[in-house]
Write a structure and sequence with these properties.
43% of the residues lie in helices and 13% in strands. By secondary structure, it is α+β, with helices and mostly antiparallel strands. It folds into two domains: 42-53 and 61-206, Phosphorylase Kinase, domain 1; 218-332, Transferase(Phosphotransferase), domain 1 (Orthogonal Bundle). A five-stranded antiparallel β-sheet has the order 1-2-3-5-4, with helices on both faces.
Length: 336
Amino acid sequence: MSTHDFEEIYTQYEAWFDPMQTDRQARRKRKPKAVHRPKKGRSDVLAEIAETTGLEGGFQTTYQPGLFEEGWLLDSLRQFYEMDYVSDVLARVRGGKEASVYRCQATPKTGMALAAAKVYRPRMFRSLRNDAVYREGRAYLKADGKAIKKNEHRLMRAIGKKTQMGEQLEHTSWLMYEYTTLQTLYAAGAAVPRPLAVGDNAILMGYCGDEYMAAPTLNTVTLETSEAHRLFAEVLRNVELMLKHGLIHGDLSAYNLLYWEGQITLIDFPQVVDYRANSSAYNVLARDIERVCEYFAGQGVDRDPQALTDHFWHRFMDGNKLNQAADASWLEADPE
C-alpha cells in the first residue's frame, strides 16, 4: 500500500470516527451560510433614499449636494416638492452653522419664478448656540404653530427631561418661531421674505436675487451716503414695526440684512424675542441697534445707538404706547 493510499484511508477513518471532526461537521451543517450581497453603488443608495423619502416621482436636482448633505436635503425638501411648490434645487446660496439656504425653481402655484429654502442642518452637524436668553418668556410651539399648553404634561415632561422627543419639540419650536414671525411681519408690511410653507426641517420663502446670484448681505456692500441714510431709516422702520408686534429681532446686523436693487430685506428670525416677557429684552434691543449703527457709521450715517435704543424702549414700554404712530421726523433727522 502506498503512502498516498494510506493517508487517504486514514482521512476517511478520521471523518467516520473522530468525534471532534464529527461535531465540527455537524456545526457546519447547522450554521447558516452567509449570503453574499454585492456592495451597492452610490447611485443605488441615493435611489433608495429618494424612494423612502417619497421622491420616487423623480425629484432630480440640478444642484449636486455633497455626500453628507444629500440625504437630509432631499428629506427636508420632500414636503415642498409634494405640495407642488418647488420642482428643482438650483444652487446653495448660503451656508451656516445652523442652516443652509438654497435657490429653488418655484412652480406656478407660488406665483414666483424662484424661491429660497432654508434647511436647518441635522443636529449632528449643527453648532447650536445657547438660546436660553431668547427662549425666556416664549411658549414652546408645535408644528401647527400653536403653543404647547402647560397641561400637556407628556410634552412638557419630554422637554424638561431632554428626551429625544423633547429635543425634537425644541427644534420644532425654534423653527416655528421663525416661520410665524415671518408671517406676522410680512402681513404687517415689513421688509421680510414672503413665507410660503414650513416643513419638519425647512422653511420655504421668497427669494432675493436672480437666477445667477443671490442678494448679498449688507456687510459686503458699500453705499453712497444718500442711499445709506435712506436704508438706515428703513431699518429703523422695521425695528419699530417689530416692536409694535411685541418683537425684537435678536440677531440684527448687517450680516442679516440682504441688499438687492437698492432695497434691504431682513432675514433670520429664530431668535426673535418677546420684549414684554423677556428680562433681557432691553439688552437684546440695544445690541441689535448698536450693530446696525456700527455698519451705517462706516457708510456716513452717524447716529447714537444708545439714544435710539432709549427712544424705542420708552415709546413701547412706557404708558402702553404700542399703538402710537412713529415720530418719523425724529428718526430720519441727520445729526447736526
